[in-house]
Design goal:
196 residues; extended; 3 helices; alpha+beta; 5-stranded mixed sheet
């Protein structure tokens, strides 16, 4: 029994020594972390100053302000990513942006849509949004709104030309819909009409 404890303690000391060695090898001094931060800031400024001026891939955005907490009402969002498509609704109180409620519907993007046509992809998006709104209207105690505020997250490289328009540079994440590359993605933001 004593022999086992001695062997067990030796093994434990070896384990502790290995963990300490690994910890030391993986630690990064604070000064080195500051150098990394400074280098990233320089690269970001260079990337924003001119196209191709940085090692970081950067695109200028026209979003010039963040929510401030006074937002009130119901907002909708579409999120087209590489694997899933999401439709969501969030209700904001406006008092420090308290969320009164939210609904999210996520569905996988059918593989064939990633290489089909822009019409088929946007028909899928529109149909998903329509189904989401119709479902909401069936369970809601409130009368349906005639218009809705809608945002669209398009998770692909887009060269923005204004806050509400941009040109798709190239597809990523397995998408290859040729008739959308270099196409102006959004001409303008218009209210979503619930009657259509």
């Amino acid at each position: 029994m004593v022999g086992r404890r001695v062997r067990s303690r030796r093994k434990w000391k070896r384990v502790v020594a290995v963990v300490e060695e690994l910890e030391e090898a993986c630690s990064t001094p604070v000064e080195r972390l500051r150098q990394v931060v400074d280098a990233m800031v320089v690269e970001m400024h260079a990337g924003l100053a001119s196209e191709g001026g940085s090692k970081l891939k950067m695109l200028i955005t026209f979003v010039d302000r963040l929510p401030n907490g006074s937002e009130k009402g119901t907002y909708y969002a579409l999120d087209l990513g590489g694997t899933n498509f999401r439709v969501l609704r969030v209700q904001l109180r406006g008092e420090g942006s308290s969320v009164l409620g939210h609904d999210v519907e996520r569905q996988p993007i059918p593989q064939h849509l990633k290489t089909s046509t822009s019409k088929e992809l946007f028909d899928f998006i529109a149909s998903s949004l329509k189904d989401f709104i119709e479902k909401e209207e069936r369970i809601s105690e409130q009368p349906a709104a005639k218009t809705r505020d809608l945002g669209f997250t398009f998770s692909f490289p887009v060269r923005q030309t204004s806050v509400s328009s941009g040109i798709l540079i190239k597809w990523t994440k397995g998408f290859a819909i040729n008739d959308l590359v270099s196409w102006i993605m959004i001409q303008s933001v218009v209210p979503l009409d619930a009657s259509n």
